[in-house]
Design goal:
about 140 residues, alpha+beta, 4 helices
Length: about 140
């Protein structure tokens, strides 16, 4: 779930409230699945990331714009018509809410035997992953 940590890091860097109060950002994985093609150890982890921003007094767009920016770079394979983000808000007071975002993420994992007992696995961007040629691609990239 490297993408979840990368998204978290991005939000803390881009949203001043979270930069000053990183403890106001909570992250969870609600559900997940592992998808692998027959005969391959390379696979993808698909999961619903739950991002919660507590005690938020800004606009929803102050959160969603940095999320969409990150998604456009690291989750490029989603069809434009599919929902990318679902959200809920709990009104805490007249001035702040807790916002919960549910975001579908996929970590593609290439795996190759490195000649020893251990197995090497690298998380890659979705656009770089081709399950049919995963081992060949990994070997080219890693010599």
């Amino acid at each position: 779930m490297n993408k979840l940590q990368a998204l978290r890091d991005h939000l803390v860097a881009k949203i001043p409230h979270l930069k000053q109060n990183p403890d106001k950002l909570l992250t969870f994985v609600d559900t997940g699945e592992i998808h692998a093609a027959a005969g391959l150890v390379s696979h993808s982890n698909r999961y619903t990331a739950n991002i919660i921003v507590t005690d938020w007094s800004g606009s929803l767009e102050d959160i969603t714009v940095p999320v969409l920016d990150w998604l456009q770079r690291f989750e490029t394979d989603h069809p434009p018509s599919s929902p990318r983000i679902r959200y809920e808000a709990d009104v805490i007071s007249h001035t702040c809410v807790d916002i919960s975002l549910n975001i579908e993420l996929t970590d593609a994992v290439k795996v190759a035997d490195d000649g020893t007992v251990s197995v090497c696995a690298d998380i890659v961007r979705e656009t770089e992953f081709d399950g049919a040629n995963a081992l060949d691609e990994w070997e080219k990239a890693n010599g």
